[in-house]
Amino acid sequence: MKRDITKSIEAYKKKYFHAGHGEGAFYVEDVDGICQYVNEKYGDELNRNTLFSMIGCALEAGFMIGYRKAQADARKGR
């Protein structure tokens, strides 16, 4: 299955970017945390493998943030 990342990013921005309620938001601390995690795991050298790892970690973190949000919404009966 091929995903349309651009479509997903645009859908995220449309739904959450300027919503003002903070639900589903990503924060500077999230990005910094991913950078720190990858730096600790792979070192300071910024190369293709590090970038791929960083992107992978970001996707994994984003998935879990979304998953937790969906669970919370289900508990609230949304």
What tags apply to this protein structure?
78 residues; mainly alpha; 3 helices; 73% helix
Provide an overview of this structure.
Helix content is 73%, strand content 0%. By secondary structure, the protein is mostly helical. The mean pLDDT is 79.
Describe what is shown at a glance.
With 78 residues, the protein is mainly alpha-helical.
Question: Helices and strands in order, then pairings?
Answer:
Layout lengths: L4 H13 L10 H15 L5 H29 L2
Order of helices and strands: HHH
Low-pLDDT ranges: none
Number of domains: 1
Estimated helix fraction: over 70%
Mean pLDDT: 79
Radius of gyration: 15 Å
